């Protein structure tokens, strides 16, 4: 089974119809879009005849990545139906260069699929997908089977949460470290007072106290700050 491509004609873009009835399918295709963000992608679109369609016997569905996203307008579908069907009767499938567009306004999702379709489909001019040239920008023809992903900036992420047990543990840790600092400070003050009472010069003792206090703060200060920050989350 070959995948055949309709040659690209830059000026002959056709907008699909019926997309709003298939929003669930569109959400599977493009995922969640944040309100106000416009999403565009050039890709290949499968043209699938539906001779058993009870509303239109010459309907041609538009599929992207095996997902039904819309239809050709009925007049164009009727015009090209026989040739499109002829491709499928040969057990081949037919794709056209196309694009999808979506934007979310509030809670409403607006979508559109377009295909590049000539006035007349020349079956002799169809090429295999592997040999088809790429579109002028973005996706290449070989990307027909790739699932489209939103840019990472559009993907929803959840901020990490802190459990009650973690908060209690952080609170205990911060309190213990703070208590150690207070005890050490009292010890240093006691030593300083004792040294002064014995007539020992206060300058070297004070310098030693400052040095030790600074060392303790460097070791424990960041841990205390981290523990307090954890309590605030």
UniProtKB/TrEMBL annotation:
* UniProt domain HIRAN: residue ranges: 39-84
Q: Which domain of life is it from?
A: Bacteria
What are the UniProt keywords, alphabetically? Hydrolase, Membrane, Metal-binding, Transmembrane, Transmembrane helix
Q: Name one GO molecular function term.
A: nucleic acid binding
Among InterPro entries, the record links this protein to: HIRAN
Does the keyword rRNA-binding feature in the UniProt annotation?
no
Q: What name does the UniProt record give this protein? A: HIRAN domain-containing protein
Which Pfam family is one of this chain's hits? HIRAN
Organism source for this protein? Aurantimicrobium minutum
Residue spans crossing the bilayer:
174-197, 203-221
């Amino acid at each position: 089974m070959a995948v055949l491509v309709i040659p690209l004609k830059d000026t002959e873009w056709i907008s699909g119809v019926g997309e709003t009835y298939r929003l669930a399918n569109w959400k599977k295709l493009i995922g969640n879009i944040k309100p106000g963000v416009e999403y565009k992608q050039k890709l290949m679109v499968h043209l699938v005849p539906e001779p058993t369609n009870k509303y239109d016997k010459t309907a041609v569905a538009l599929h992207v990545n095996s997902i039904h996203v819309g239809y050709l307008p009925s007049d164009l579908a009727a015009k090209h139906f026989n040739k499109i069907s002829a491709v499928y009767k040969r057990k081949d499938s037919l794709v056209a260069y196309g694009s999808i567009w979506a934007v979310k306004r509030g809670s409403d999702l607006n979508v559109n699929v377009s295909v590049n379709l000539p006035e007349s489909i020349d079956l002799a001019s169809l090429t295999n997908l592997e040999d088809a040239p790429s579109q002028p920008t973005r996706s290449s023809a070989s990307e027909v089977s790739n699932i489209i992903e939103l840019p990472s900036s559009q993907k929803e992420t959840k901020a990490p949460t802190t459990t009650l047990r973690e908060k209690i543990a952080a609170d205990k840790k911060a309190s213990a470290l703070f208590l150690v600092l207070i005890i050490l400070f009292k010890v240093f003050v006691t030593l300083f007072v004792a040294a002064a009472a014995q007539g020992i010069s206060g300058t070297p003792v004070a310098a030693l106290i400052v040095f030790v206090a600074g060392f303790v703060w460097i070791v424990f200060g960041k841990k205390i700050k981290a523990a307090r920050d954890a309590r605030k989350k």
